Amino acid sequence: MAVTVYLLDDEEALVELHSEVVKMSGLIARAFTRASQFFEQITHFESGSILMLDLQMPEMDGIEVMRRLATMHNPPELILISGHDIGVLNSAEKLCRAHGLKVLASLSKPLSLDYLSQLLKQHRPDDSTQKQPRPTLDENEFDAEGFRRAISQNEMLLYYQPQIDIATGEMSGLEALARWQHPEYGLINLETVIPHAEKLGVMGELTEWVIDTAVKQEQQWQQEGYQACVSVNISASDITSLSLPEKIATLLEDNRLDPTRFKLEVTESALMGELVTSLDILTRLRLKGIGLSIDDFGTGYSSLSQLHKVPFTELKIDRSFVSNMTEDAEALAIVKTCIMLGHELKMRVVAEGVEKKVHFSLLQQMGCDIAQGYFIAKPMPAESVSHWVNSRQQL
Ligand code: C2E
Ligand code: MG
Ligand code: MG
Questions:
Q1: pTM of the full predicted structure?
Q2: Under a CB-based contact definition with an 8 Å cutoff, are residues 45 and 77 in contact?
Q3: Are residues 348 and 250 in the same domain?
Q4: CA–CA gap between residue 386 and residue 395 (Å, rounded)
Q5: Which pLDDT score, from 0 to 100, does residue 91 have?
Q6: What distance in angstroms lies between residue 345's CA and the mean position of ligand 2's atoms?
Q7: CA–CA separation, 60 vs 257, rounded Å?
Q8: Domain total for the chain?
């Protein structure tokens, strides 16, 4: 099935030019210069469709368009376009994610037509080297029972992404990242599923499975001679369960694992709830020796005093800053400041989203402790880790 690319930009000449690139890349182009006309004519989207969206339009701007798309069934994936500075694109991209929309790319005007064509060709259906667009996950199809079944029937998997000590080049840890091997939809990253699992009240069961699986895996690695720490992500609803520290401590003890080799990652926004309860839980986790990491740092809302109150041992700089720091001076300034802040507060600083050698070199110069990202390794199944360790070249 051919992929449709919708183009929405008030500059007529640009829409025409970009439509030509879409067609030459082997996809179907449907161009619009007014958002109202777009929404009048297009009331549903086929799976895998794409919208190239200009953020500045007179009558309904790109942000409003996003908001409307978020309420529609099966919205297209977005290519955001703006003539403004990169900061505007970054904010718009975050807003899209907050709405549950997927962003394929954010591009500054004038667009590089070559780059656009390369990007679009990856979505050409007859290109057998690329994945076919999958039916999008319709969250209304899931219920609590479906989730429980997925866990009990081993449809949930943990992938692990290595982390490197920047000074020594050694593997210092592995982050466990959950995937759902869905019988119909294929391998799904959990990011889109988690808010729904929280709403259904099954997140705790998923987290329990993740922690249990990661602890057992860590014990196996320890027996094989790997000393790396394992980190697990927990969500907002997990830090409302007062028995969490005891449960984890018992599990670690039963598996004879040193709690200082186990870490929990909490996002800034997860701390937005009842602070007294989360502080109680997080402090007791630390008292038991378990490491605490503040994840996606810089994207949430935590205040500095909150950061100071919670006994975090590690600060993870969000990947959006790290992967953009060579093109975006503001992102570079944020990365630098986070490293300084983390060190001043006696935390280890991890950079996520290290995609290129130049990112790694810059982080090394800035004194960052740990690197994680595609330049080092993509998340992989547990069985692949030993092969990766043995075959990898020192950075
Ligand atoms: P996170 O904890 O910040 O995890 C890092 C995410 O960045 C992972 O996405 C990883 O695949 C991706 N990543 C790693 N290196 C790079 C890179 O160089 N470039 C780019 N662009 N991305 C990179 P993933 O696995 O899709 O997970 C997304 C988020 O979903 C995680 O963000 C985490 O917040 C959440 N998540 C994943 N597994 C779990 C889980 O078991 N429990 C909970 N509560 N959340 C989870
Ligand atoms: Mg994480
Ligand atoms: Mg992160």
A1: 0.74
A2: no
A3: yes
A4: 17
A5: 86
A6: 20
A7: 56
A8: 2
